[in-house]
Specification:
The protein is an alpha+beta fold and 377 residues long. The protein folds into 2 domains: 123 residues, no CATH class; 200 residues, no CATH class. It is built from 11 helices and 8 strands. Strands 4-3-2-1-5-6-7-8 form an 8-stranded antiparallel sheet, covered by helices on one side. Helix 6 packs antiparallel against helix 11 and helix 7 packs across helix 10. The longest helix has 45 residues. The two termini are 42 Å apart.
């Protein structure tokens, strides 16, 4: 590679890194507690603990679950009901003033075996909520998500340009060399390059999945326009329902259609993942990978008959696979620890990059000052 080409790559690496580094540092710092969100929730006492009972304890009707939830917040309507992927003992029911209102939402955790309300988790406060919002959209909604997605693209550019520059840089040095006997700047430069190449694959994975995750709202909206519109087309023009049928019968119909799958979450009529006339029953697989993938089953909210069901398109499948991979949710505790270590190493890479830029800028300013003084003399 000739000198001019190296300079171009160096310029690309420098400015792509500088523009995104502060935001990447923020994402690494906020992402670290999110890796251990369940564990931190237990420490803070915000996780809902279900009482111990026999594994084969019968579950109460979903109609009973909704009755209890609405009794806690009269006047509100159901939006979603969901369970943790590895724990079907608790239903988390989200309610609001209307099916599409995201302000003033309330959540009630209900024991799936007794029908008793266990807690009312706070949806918009607390340490983990702040970390999550900063990490996902900077408290700026869709514009914030798209902005962070652009920063993620710059990160990928910085990684690729860094790899291009790493080869020529390492021609005269053994891999892993850190010249700690020389200047502080050289030591941090070697450390920056070493940790950068060590975390290369992880950074590409987390950066790429992070970019995909910032498109989540847009992908869901496209799915509504594309697939959901086809699924609910026979109900177009029908008057809205004044009374909903049995939720339990709707759930039973979905389970009968997909007996080898388990319940993921329920979207009530009028919400993002359903229609004004349907319960959206989202089933999930039982294997480690398929448990992250959902299959929507639309059930008529009045007659409890299944009206349509289809596999999610590739773009939503890609999104669903990328979300747990981004946070290290696939391999249990060992993967969480690995993700945390790599996250900390990345913080060092980003911080050292800022330090090297600052030191070089300061050195260049000092040289310029000497040239000016010499010229004046």
């Amino acid at each position: 590679m000739n000198t001019a080409s190296l300079r171009r790559w160096a310029w690309i690496h420098k400015w792509s890194s500088l523009v995104c580094t502060i935001f990447m540092l923020l994402l690494c710092l906020t992402g670290l507690p999110l890796i251990f969100h369940h564990e931190i929730g237990h420490l803070l006492g915000t996780e809902v603990e279900a009482p111990e009972m026999a594994a084969d304890t019968p579950r109460v009707s979903m109609d009973k679950v909704m009755e209890v939830a609405k009794a806690r917040h009269p006047g509100l309507v159901g939006m979603f009901a969901s369970q943790e992927e590895d724990d079907d003992r608790v239903w988390f029911v989200t309610l609001s003033s209307t099916p599409t209102s995201e302000t003033g939402m309330k959540q009630v955790a209900i024991d799936a075996r007794t029908g008793e309300a266990l807690a009312e988790p706070k949806l918009d406060e607390g340490f983990m909520y702040i970390m999550f919002k900063l990490h996902v959209d900077l408290f700026a909604g869709l514009p914030g998500m798209l902005f962070l997605g652009f920063m993620g693209i710059l990160l990928i550019v910085a990684i690729i340009s860094g790899v291009v520059l790493y080869g020529p840089f390492m021609k005269k040095l053994k891999f892993g060399t850190v010249r700690d006997q020389r200047s502080s700047r050289l030591k941090w430069l070697d450390l920056h390059n070493l940790l950068g190449i060590v975390t290369l694959s992880w950074l590409l994975i987390v950066g790429a999945t992070g970019v995909i995750n910032t498109w989540a709202d847009l992908l869901v909206k496209y799915w509504q326009y594309d697939q959901m519109a086809e699924m609910i087309a026979p109900y177009k023009g029908k008057p809205p329902l004044t009374e909903l049928g049995s939720l339990q019968k709707a759930v039973d119909a979905a389970i009968a259609l997909e007996p080898s799958m388990k319940m993921g979450f329920i979207a009530f009529p009028g919400t993002t993942f359903s229609s004004p006339h349907h319960y959206g029953i989202f089933m999930r697989g039982t294997e480690p990978l398929t448990s992250r993938l959902f299959k929507p089953v639309l059930v008529d909210a009045k007659t409890s008959e299944v009206t349509d069901s289809r596999v999610l398109p590739w773009y939503l499948t890609t999104l669903l696979v990328s979300q747990p991979l981004h946070f290290g949710d696939y391999g249990g505790r060992p993967m969480q620890i690995l993700w945390a270590i790599l996250d900390l190493m990345t913080i060092v890479v980003l911080g050292s990059g800022l330090y090297l830029w600052f030191v070089r800028r300061k050195t260049n300013e000092a040289r310029m000052e000497k040239l000016i003084q010499a010229h004046q003399a």
